[in-house]
User: Fold this.
Amino acid sequence: MINQKDLLPKDMGRSDEQLIKLEVDQLMPLLAPYDKPGMEPAMTDPKPAWKEKFCTSLDGYVGIDTLIRPKSKEEEDEFVRKFLSGLEKIFSDANNGVLEPLLLTFEYCAKCNTCSDACHIYTATGNNELYRPIYRSEVLRKIMKKYFTKSGKLLGNFVGADIDVNWETIARLGELAYRCNLCRRCAQTCPLGLDNSLLTKEIRKIFSQEMGIAPTPLHTKGSMLQIKTGSSTGLSKPAFLDTLEFLEEDTEERFGIKFKFPVDKKGADILVLHNAGEFIAWPENPVAFALLFEEAGLNWTLSSEIMGYDSVNYGLWYDDFQAKKIALMQMKVAKDFGVNRLVVAECGHAHKASMVVGDRMAYGDAKIPVESCLPLLWDMVKNKRLKLDPSKNNFPVTLHDPCNVVRQLGIVEPQRNVLKAICPQFREMTPHGVDNYCCGGGSGFAIMNSQNFPQFRDSVASRVKFNQILGAFKDTIEDPSIPKYVCAPCSNCKGAMRSIFEHYDATEKFNLQYGGLVELMVNALVSMKKPYLEFLDKE
Amino acid sequence: MLLSFIAYLSIFLFVGISVYKAYKFAKMPLHGRMELYPVPKEKGFEHGGSFYEEVSWWSKPHEVSHFREIMEMMKEILFIKKLFENQRPFWWISYALHLGIYLLMAWTMLLVVGATTELNGIFVAANSPSIWGLLIYYLTFVTGICGLVLGTLGAGLLFLRRMFDSTLKKYTTPQEYFNLLLLFAALFSGIITWGSDLSFSTARDVTANLITFTNFDATGLQIINIILVGIMLTYIPISKMSHYVGKYFTFHTVLWDNSPNVKGSAVEQKVKKATSYKPTTSWSAPHIKGPSAPK
Ligand code: SF4
Ligand code: SF4
Assistant:
């Protein structure tokens, strides 16, 4: 193990069993009441069996559960060969869709180190060298230079081509690509406009698109399952319809409200696309959407077509091929449906997938206008299409801005306008809006639960966010009789919140709650006879 | 003559290679959108907003302000705003170097203007009877002194900072030290060559000889300086110090390009072209190539 302070990019090829180890006392301190000793679970060592099977030689965590240690020298060589072949391909026409931004970031980094402080993972680790945004980029540059540039071949160390490339180097780099949330906060501060997350994603892409290695929750149980069944949850059409029926009955039973989800309704104006995970993990969210849209009198529908009821697109995080395939399939379903517009519900990466990433994948009649639910929700509040009573939400509320929605789409005001209108105790976190910090669940982390990866996510990736939450509620945090609500209008962010609150036992101890935006809106509806939010329902 | 040739050639190469690089980037295939807010041309720039904050955004005009975009660009070019905001200590020295270079570019142009003015019989000096002559004289004086001092100081301090800052040191390659040393050498040789005559009339005379291909008795220092500057001018655009080219593209075609692909738009035409392109290379993972790959 190396003292992280001495760690150099070329050390990735060292034969150490593990490059560095994270300890709680080195991490960024948490705010009160988590500043006392014993409030946080200790960091653990990887199990011996994992060390033998996976790549735990980076920091002891396993992000890629399909990255298996080779059994022979041949396998090892083949692994390195494949990586290098993929590395060459990211600079070829197979990668036209990112070639220009990639080359710019690859060539122009001035190593000014302005981006480091913007990164919540680097900050959370107490500025551990391994997690500096340019550390990873520099390793990739060194390998590229060593094998594929004239200057590297001729001048070697002089131009930085000074790294040993073996199984360990490449595998560690693959793991390191899953220590970044792809949140692009670092890119906002770069004086040259460069984007380290781009290189991170290219590493993930080489692993997936060339070597066939990607975390199971993203690939086999993610995008592949979605292409096969229509949803990454595996929810089939009949199961989806059953779920809707169950939710209708349940809502009637609990709140005395009779309603029906419009499904495959001909002539509807709006097709609403949810992250299908909502129906399973947070069904109150799609129900709330339905209640609001019905009350506002919108002409809307859900689709039960395969690919029509799940907005997710995990390809965005690791594989362009999968991303494109899913985006085009989703576009086709919406197009065939004949609605005027597609509204993306509370899922950040689905927003980005359908509105930004998918924007240049098709053209003309193959496309259908897509918009975010957030402006629509604000429009309903602003134009008084809903009868709302803010006093029903009279508890502290703060807003977590999903990176995909703010930084990558520029949707900043509508969601906070709604909160300002319906939550008397709304307060911002610091920083917020486009300067927000990732929840720690970005780029797939929220659903990556294999081996010990959740510990990295909860203790490190989500650490800065947790501190922001503690900061926003510092006036009432220690009083468990007051519920404190983190509004996170994104399925992945909610997943991350659920994990951190469990990890820190924060709901139990301090009554920290989380949920989406629409739940708060329904809770404020004058027509609701009892609180929609379960934690307010004391009966 | 040879020095004139070096001067012309290096300037030609500097401009030529820079333009060629820009051309290469401009000709690159259309890439996916990856804008990053705040985007200056957007109406909601102050809070980082975009047209997506509107309901049915596609049915409304996309209001953009190119003036604000240019203003933000100027702040970056003239003041390196992002560095100023995000890493102040580094900004001081980086800005010294950049400002020094800008001033030296102005100085060089003023030397050329001054030399031509003198060739036309107008005296350029502190006691010139001509207002033009006086103006050129003082502008040359100020830009020359400030440019040489700031530039040299900036390059030298950046080099030292890289050497002694424990973090930067880890990421700096020998080539990157070389880049700074080359800048420092060219600028420092400028100070010793031209600093002995702060009226810069020697510099103006030499410039006059250089631009008119006139043979003259150059001193050893002058030869060294002209050659070093020549090497520097040729090397900058081929090295990553050509970030003045890259930076235009990172902002304009990547971070600030949020033009949606709507019907009838220019982007739509580009998308049409890009989607018809058949790549010559393909990926090898089983889900892309293999028999079980989804159709
Ligand atoms: S801020 Fe930009 S140029 Fe500076 S080190 Fe980071 S990526 Fe490189
Ligand atoms: S994209 Fe986000 S997580 Fe990744 S290096 Fe940049 S700031 Fe850190």
Remarks:
- Residues A 118-119, 121, 133, 180-186, 196-197, 438 surround iron/sulfur cluster (ligand 2) (CB under 6 Å).
